[in-house]
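Now for one record.
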Amino acid sequence: MDSPGVTNHEGKTTGIYQSLLYFGLQVRDRFFNKVTEGPKPEIQIIETSSESMLSGTFAIIFGEQKVKILSNTVPLLVENALMSLPDIISVYATSNSAKTLIHDVTIMATKGIDIVFSSRRLYEFLIGDWARIGNQSNGQIFNIIEMSVMEPYSLRLSHPYLGQYENNATIFFHKQDPAIFGFQYIISFNCDMGSIAPLKTDISSLSGLNAQASVTSCDRFQQQTLIIKSVTGDTLHGSFYLTYKEEKTDDLSIYVTTSDLKKNN
């Protein structure tokens, strides 16, 4: 992007030999769309499940290294365990579990303390359960280690509360399907680590009826196949469109060619 007549911004074609030169670059993808954001961290999701209460441990495997995780370990402790591996630059773990609000309860929590106080006895929890304190979307998740059955109703947590002092904080529990028990871990890797091979799990020490652990990851150059057909066998007519995030293609004929489909990317 040359700026003729502007000192040091004349560009590569009109600049003066051996003079200071500035120029701008516009990053584009292979479809010539402007790239307006920097690299995104790779995200992988681990989900455990069982038809009965989980117990024991499972291992998360990263390359040739692995860490052992308790069946009910909360995301922060999974994050700490992964950070102990020498090949991981940094990682952040969270979860969409533990988001069911207990409406008639408030929590008093103090930064740096692993004991909080509830406005009433919490019948919703068992020892070891997950509890989210604060914001529903990004509040901290804890294991409950101890619970008082008499006033003051104290809860000892798996690790200190790190937010600001709260006298009326909300608390959420992990409402599980009566037929399925398990937890979710959303793991974001430092973007400087680039494309990461899918994590693996070892559930040989995980106890529960039909206990499982799945990993959801995005593989580089992954392809998706679009098949359009009539369930009844009738002749197809009309059009369709494709969406990705907030974007959509033009209406496409069901007989669209591969080249025309590419033009709509």
